[in-house]
Write a structure and sequence with these properties.
By secondary structure, the protein is α/β, with parallel strands linked by helices. The chain has 2 domains: 5-121 and 306-323, Nucleotidyltransferase, domain 5, CATH 3.30.420.40; 133-301, 2-Layer Sandwich (Nucleotidyltransferase, domain 5). Helix content is 40%, strand content 19%. The chain contains 10 helices and 10 strands. It has helices at residues 46-67, 87-103, 113-119, 167-177, 185-192, 217-227, 237-265, 282-294, 304-307, 312-323, and strands spanning 5-10, 15-22, 27-34, 77-83, 108-112, 135-140, 145-152, 155-161, 271-275, 298-300. β6 (135-140) and β7 (145-152) form a beta hairpin. The radius of gyration is 20 Å and the shape is globular. The chain starts with a strand and ends in a 15-residue tail after the last helix. The structure holds 5'-O-[(R)-(carboxyoxy)(hydroxy)phosphoryl]adenosine and zinc ion. 5'-O-[(R)-(carboxyoxy)(hydroxy)phosphoryl]adenosine is lined by residues 13, 141-143, 168, 171-172, 183-186, 189, 276-278, 280-281, 308-309.
Length: 338
């Protein structure tokens, strides 16, 4: 890596992010701009997201370079997420990074977004001793929900994923039904603290079944059914809190059950790792930690800013690929099976 530093861009959903990493993985600068255009619309609008990335990225990159005390000329390589994600944003971010790379005749490294989430817990200094392969990743965000056996760089096995909604999507939809804002996960968790998790009978989809597939749409529909009798009447706060607590408890139960099965499918895993925005959820983290300890393995959850979409993870995945001398090609397709 000539110049000793790598600049990375992430733009696959609604976060525009840039980071600069030293060749050894030290974070020299990082910045995330979370687009607020989508909140009033109740979800991410791809076209609006792509245009916002285009507006935000030039300034964000300039600020990140300044924060690192460097100039663009001193950057030795450029990386960006090329998939999977919303295609407009991917094109904006990766074209921007490729443009910078071509202008300075530096390498460009294409990064798979899921691989970036999967390798983040290996960032130097994040866990002690450093996380080694193989480990089990539970990736739970607004867009992703899957169990992946991470065996090495480029060696991933998807053990199961959602057959309908992602976990974060379920939190967001149920929060919406309860009249909470978007994104709903944090608001729902807060409300759940005032509720009784055993008060409302809700299903636990796929619980007790083999494999580690997920399903959340039935749980969401069950909440809608509980709420139906209220029509347009305001929901009593205690009842809303009980529903939130019961929903969250069931999601945690299902996740623990799925993680248990996944560990059975990857018995060589040395750690259980959770990433994605839903990993912010305290109840879920606690349950998964218990599962890991019952299996006698470590539980690793990167700090929240590195669990949600960010560019540090993109830079780190690019460095891991460079070190393994196995960079992805420049295509926009999902090169990995996961
Ligand atoms: O990883 P992320 O920032 O973006 C992507 O989807 O890629 O994840 C956002 C998702 C949203 O669905 C949000 O509601 C959920 O993570 N989330 C939570 C919590 N904080 C964020 N879900 C449950 N509990 C939370 N505390
Ligand atoms: Zn993500």
């Amino acid at each position: 890596l000539s110049g000793g530093a790598l600049l990375a861009i992430e733009s696959s959903c609604d976060d525009s992010a840039c980071a600069i990493l030293a060749a050894d993985g030290r974070i020299l600068a990082e910045a995330v701009h979370s687009q607020n255009e989508h909140a009033p619309l109740g979800g991410v609008v791809p076209e609006i997201a792509a245009r916002a990335h285009l507006t935000v990225l030039p300034g964000l990159v300039a600020r990140t370079v300044e924060q690192a005390g460097m100039t663009l000329g001193e950057i030795g390589a450029f990386a960006a997420t090329t998939g999977p994600g919303l295609i407009g944003g991917l094109i904006v971010g990766s074209s921007f990074a490729k443009g910078l790379a071509i202008a300075r005749q530096r390498p460009f490294i294409a990064v798979n977004h899921i691989e970036a989430h999967a390798l983040t817990p290996r960032l130097p200094g994040l866990s002690s001793p450093p996380l080694s392969f193989p480990y089990l990743l539970l990736l739970v965000s607004g867009g992703h929900c899957q169990c992946v056996a991470v065996r090495g760089i480029g060696n991933y096995e998807k053990l199961g994923g959602t057959i309908d909604d992602a976990a974060g999507e379920a939190f967001d939809k149920v929060a919406k039904l309860l009249g909470l804002g978007w994104p709903g996960g944090p608001a729902l968790e807060k409300l759940a603290r005032e509720g009784d998790p055993t008060a409302v009978a809700l299903p636990r989809p796929l619980m007790g079944r083999a494999g580690c597939e997920f399903s959340f749409s039935g749980l969401k529909t069950a909440v809608a059914r509980v709420l139906a009798p209220y029509g347009r009447e305001p929901l009593p706060r205690q009842h809303a809190a009980d529903i939130a607590a019961s929903f969250q408890r069931n999601v945690a139960d299902v996740m623990a059950d799925r993680a248990e099965n996944a560990l059975g499918m990857a018995p060589d895993a040395s750690a259980l790792v959770v990433a994605g925005g839903v990993a912010a959820n305290g109840e879920l983290r606690a349950r998964l930690e218990t599962v890991a300890h019952q299996h006698g393995i470590r539980f690793v959850a990167p700090p929240l800013r590195l669990c949600t979409d960010n560019a540090v993870m993109v830079g780190w995945a690019a460095l891991e690929r460079l070190r393994a001398r196995s960079t992805l090609d420049l295509g926009m397709e999902d090169e990995l099976a996961v």
